[in-house]
């Protein structure tokens, strides 16, 4: 049996080296594939029971492994939709059949419908911002995910909802003195409205603030057009120590004259108001919202928030890219298109956002290169060739000896 066993062992060795050569060929072919992860062939011995002075040669078994957890180098581009993950995690993408996969290949471009699609045709998935609220991730599944779509919707306007007003109130002002400033805000149709902020000294270290809609305000009595008010108290150092109410929220203004638009309730942050010597100064202020403008591009930050950029310079968050990971990334199942699906040994898929937990940051205008080292692959190819030849010699020698044995009977 040992001659037959030697031939079988030689065949086993040649088959193992063929598998190794196959992974080397695949690695070299994908050396320039974005996000590709190197495959390698691991060997283990196969021993057969022997006894009674006879030796049964065994063979060798192979298992293909993927270095999915090993990050490749980074190359930089000029496209804002090219994305790389610096750290752990995978992009979640969806195929044409609606099935979700994981990938590190972030070479995305908008298709005709505005969906961000990578080279293999998989759509990038994320969570949509609704009413400006930061989306909530579903940790243990893909529920709630939608295609990241950046389609030009023509002119778009957004109403103001929150802002800030910072001012220094002169400590030497007399009781009853008023100090005005103003802020431009946007209604639901993008029309500009002017709100006057009028500060009035009511006592020592005491001021009141009224927010007036300039187009409807009348002094009265009774006064109309006052949409918000707040009382402030300052300490001896001029720092604001209290305010009533603590959060300044205006009342909505519906059916603005001449339009069907409305100005919703505004939350105004006044915490940086001070009372110091010198003149009254408005030290800063701002408001969200925008007038009608056309989409001019988009930006993606390191936390995966996708902002649509409009002609007026405003950035509006539209989507947040979702990332996913598993306990054992190297046990994921590779699929065509440089994507991976969950395997029985990979662990449960956990989703989250970039920059949190085990997830790395997202880098725009960058791509993750293949983690293939061509020099190592060429070395492995030469070794596979030599070992295949050596195993073929074993098979040939055993075959020749078997022929000698058969000829003895003749």
TrEMBL record:
<dbReference type="InterPro" id="IPR001444">
    <property type="entry name" value="Flag_bb_rod_N"/>
</dbReference>
<dbReference type="GO" id="GO:0009425">
    <property type="term" value="C:bacterial-type flagellum basal body"/>
</dbReference>
<dbReference type="InterPro" id="IPR019776">
    <property type="entry name" value="Flagellar_basal_body_rod_CS"/>
</dbReference>
<feature type="domain" description="Flagellar hook protein FlgE D2">
    <location>
        <begin position="179"/>
        <end position="285"/>
    </location>
</feature>
<dbReference type="GO" id="GO:0071978">
    <property type="term" value="P:bacterial-type flagellum-dependent swarming motility"/>
</dbReference>
<feature type="domain" description="Flagellar hook protein FlgE/F/G-like D1">
    <location>
        <begin position="84"/>
        <end position="156"/>
    </location>
</feature>
<dbReference type="Pfam" id="PF07559">
    <property type="entry name" value="FlgE_D2"/>
</dbReference>
<keyword id="KW-0975">Bacterial flagellum</keyword>
<feature type="domain" description="Flagellar basal-body/hook protein C-terminal">
    <location>
        <begin position="363"/>
        <end position="408"/>
    </location>
</feature>
<dbReference type="InterPro" id="IPR053967">
    <property type="entry name" value="LlgE_F_G-like_D1"/>
</dbReference>
<feature type="domain" description="Flagellar basal body rod protein N-terminal">
    <location>
        <begin position="7"/>
        <end position="37"/>
    </location>
</feature>
<dbReference type="InterPro" id="IPR011491">
    <property type="entry name" value="FlgE_D2"/>
</dbReference>
<dbReference type="InterPro" id="IPR037058">
    <property type="entry name" value="Falgellar_hook_FlgE_sf"/>
</dbReference>
<dbReference type="InterPro" id="IPR020013">
    <property type="entry name" value="Flagellar_FlgE/F/G"/>
</dbReference>
<keyword id="KW-0969">Cilium</keyword>
<keyword id="KW-0282">Flagellum</keyword>
<dbReference type="GO" id="GO:0005829">
    <property type="term" value="C:cytosol"/>
</dbReference>
<comment type="similarity">
    <text>Belongs to the flagella basal body rod proteins family.</text>
</comment>
<dbReference type="Pfam" id="PF00460">
    <property type="entry name" value="Flg_bb_rod"/>
</dbReference>
<dbReference type="InterPro" id="IPR010930">
    <property type="entry name" value="Flg_bb/hook_C_dom"/>
</dbReference>
<dbReference type="Pfam" id="PF06429">
    <property type="entry name" value="Flg_bbr_C"/>
</dbReference>
<dbReference type="InterPro" id="IPR037925">
    <property type="entry name" value="FlgE/F/G-like"/>
</dbReference>
<dbReference type="Pfam" id="PF22692">
    <property type="entry name" value="LlgE_F_G_D1"/>
</dbReference>
<dbReference type="GO" id="GO:0009424">
    <property type="term" value="C:bacterial-type flagellum hook"/>
</dbReference>
<comment type="function">
    <text>A flexible structure which links the flagellar filament to the drive apparatus in the basal body.</text>
</comment>
<protein>
    <recommendedName>
        <fullName>Flagellar hook protein FlgE</fullName>
    </recommendedName>
</protein>
<keyword id="KW-0966">Cell projection</keyword>
């Amino acid at each position: 049996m040992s001659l037959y066993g030697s031939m079988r062992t030689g065949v086993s060795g040649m088959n193992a080296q063929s598998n190794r050569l196959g992974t080397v060929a695949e690695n070299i072919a994908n050396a320039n594939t974005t996000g590709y992860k190197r495959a390698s062939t691991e060997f283990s011995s196969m021993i057969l029971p022997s006894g009674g002075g006879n030796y049964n040669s065994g063979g060798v078994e192979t298992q293909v492994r993927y270095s999915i957890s090993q990050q490749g180098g980074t190359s930089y581009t000029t496209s804002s939709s090219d994305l790389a993950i610096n750290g752990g995690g995978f992009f979640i993408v969806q195929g044409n059949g609606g099935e979700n996969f994981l990938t590190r290949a972030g070479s995305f471009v908008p298709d005709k419908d505005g969906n961000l699609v990578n080279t293999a045709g998989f759509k990038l998935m994320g969570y949509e911002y609704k009413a400006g609220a930061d989306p909530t991730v579903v940790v243990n599944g893909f529920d709630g995910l939608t295609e990241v779509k950046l389609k030009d919707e023509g002119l778009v306007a957004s109403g103001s909802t929150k802002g800030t007003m910072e001012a220094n109130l002169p400590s030497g002002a007399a009781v009853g003195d008023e100090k005005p400033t103003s802020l431009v805000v946007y209604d639901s149709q993008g029309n500009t409205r002017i709100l006057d902020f009028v500060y009035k000294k009511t006592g020592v270290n005491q001021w009141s603030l009224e927010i007036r809609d300039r187009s409807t305000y009348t002094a009265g009595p009774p006064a109309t057009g006052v949409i918000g008010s707040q009382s402030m108290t300052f300490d001896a150092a001029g720092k604001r120590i209290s305010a009533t109410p603590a959060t300044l929220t205006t009342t909505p203004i519906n059916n603005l004259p001449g339009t069907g638009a409305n100005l919703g309730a505004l939350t105004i942050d006044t915490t940086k108001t001070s009372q110091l010597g010198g003149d009254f100064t408005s030290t800063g202020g701002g408001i969200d919202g925008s007038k009608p403008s056309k989409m001019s591009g988009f930006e993606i930050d390191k936390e995966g928030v996708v902002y649509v950029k409009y002609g007026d310079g405003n950035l509006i968050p539209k989507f947040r890219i979702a990332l996913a990971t598993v306990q054992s990334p190297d046990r994921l199942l590779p699929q065509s298109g440089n994507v991976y699906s969950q395997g029985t040994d990979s662990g449960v898929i956990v989703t989250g956002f970039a920059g949190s937990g085990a997830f790395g940051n997202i880098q725009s205008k960058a791509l993750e290169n293949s983690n293939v080292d061509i020099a190592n692959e060429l070395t492995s190819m030469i070794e596979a060739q030599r070992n295949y030849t050596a195993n073929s010699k074993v098979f040939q020698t055993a075959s020749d000896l078997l022929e000698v044995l058969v000829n003895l009977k003749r």
